[in-house]
From TrEMBL:
This is Uncharacterized protein. Residues 1-22 form the signal peptide. The chain crosses the membrane at residues 328-347. It holds the Pfam family Glyco_hydro_12.
């Protein structure tokens, strides 16, 4: 008999085999509304949607995302359990929530405020029931480091002058990430230790550092990295946006069409769980408040687009998200089924 703690993973395997996106019956038994694996998604019109987004799986790994209170826009959350023992320098998945709003797409120079909020936790092992009181209370850095886990925690938004492309993670011209946590030692696209103090911007209590790069699809990627892990985030992120368009790194006419929050999962030889909740997004339109932008460090040149002299040209996606790829659906199913069955055997 399979232990109850593993029932969710088995249900996800059966769902994949039958072509169903989520297994609600088994999810309910564990306190979850739905369980999704592989590249599957889930939405019920609450103002949030969810994606497991294992877009670059390795043969011996797996990932499943269990959704809590999906119908609520205020108390919803998810637990994403994953294991990627393969290439530690490649992003294998991005389990995330997508914020849905009638205000999107919105022109960046017509935003007076854009508030984003989320809370998260990360720890080795698997969370099997949604009513675990401590699911958002812990960030076990020592335990994660002991097993060589590597991941980031980030907001991710996409922009383009065209409103249709702005809503697509694969078609948008610009991508802006806000890293609010790190596990192990991941690097943003365009990372260079020599310019780590060149381009910064105050947001809340922290000075975020900007790294720029261009992925192989041609997307211009701007990554703002917090100097400290922020397990609870609630900020108006307009200063980071203004830094980009007022310095002409992003067109002032670009529209934000897609906003997400999740974790880029690079590597772990054992199961780890990323838990998230307290999601919120508010957009206020109108003439923007002109924030004071941090000056460029004395030893650095003015910031330029990564397509220009400062940029890295066509950069590898091994550092930062860089590129989201899609594989043939059947391949993903086979890989996920084998991986989950293997995980069940090892855990049981």
């Amino acid at each position: 008999m399979i232990p109850p703690a593993h029932a969710a993973l088995l249900a996800a395997t059966l769902a994949l085999l039958s072509g169903v996106n989520a297994s609600k019956k088994s999810a309910s038994a564990n306190g979850y509304d739905a369980i999704i694996c592989g590249q599957n998604g889930y939405s019920d019109g609450s103002g949030l949607s969810y994606s497991a987004n294992a877009w670059n799986p390795d043969d011996n790994g797996f990932q499943c995302l269990s959704i809590i209170n999906a119908s609520s826009s205020t108390t919803s959350g998810f637990d994403a359990t994953w294991k990627w023992p393969g290439d530690p320098d490649a992003v294998h998945s991005f389990p995330h929530v997508t914020f849905l709003s009638d205000d999107l797409p919105v022109t960046v120079s017509n935003i007076s405020a854009l508030r984003l909020a989320a809370s998260w936790a990360y720890a080795p092992g698997s969370i099997s029931t949604a009513d675990d009181a401590g699911r958002l209370d812990g960030f076990d850095t020592n335990g994660l480091n002991d097993i060589g886990a590597k991941a980031n925690i980030a907001f991710d938004m996409f922009m383009d002058m065209d409103k249709v492309k702005a809503a697509s993670a694969t078609a948008a011209k610009y991508e802006m990430m806000i890293w609010i946590g790190q596990v192990g030692n991941p690097y943003p696209l365009g990372f260079d230790s020599e310019n780590a103090t060149c381009y910064t911007q105050q947001l809340g209590s922290f000075n975020f550092t900007l790294y720029t790069g261009q992925n192989s699809r041609g997307t211009l990627v701007y990554s703002w990295v917090s100097p400290a892990d922020q397990t609870s985030f609630d900020e108006d992120i307009t200063p980071l946006l203004q830094y980009l368009w007022r310095n002409e790194l992003v067109s002032a006419d670009a529209r934000i069409g897609l906003v997400e929050f999740g974790s880029e999962a690079y590597h772990s030889g054992n199961n780890v769980t990323f838990s998230a909740g307290d999601f919120d997004m508010n957009v206020w339109l109108g003439t923007p408040v002109k924030f004071e932008l941090n000056p460029v460090a004395d030893h650095c040149e003015a910031p330029e687009s990564p397509a220009g002299p400062q940029g890295t040209g066509s950069s590898s996606s091994e550092k930062g998200m860089g590129l989201r790829a899609r594989e043939a659906p059947m391949t993903g199913v086979i890989v996920m089924v084998v991986a989950i069955v293997s995980a069940l055997a090892s855990l049981g």
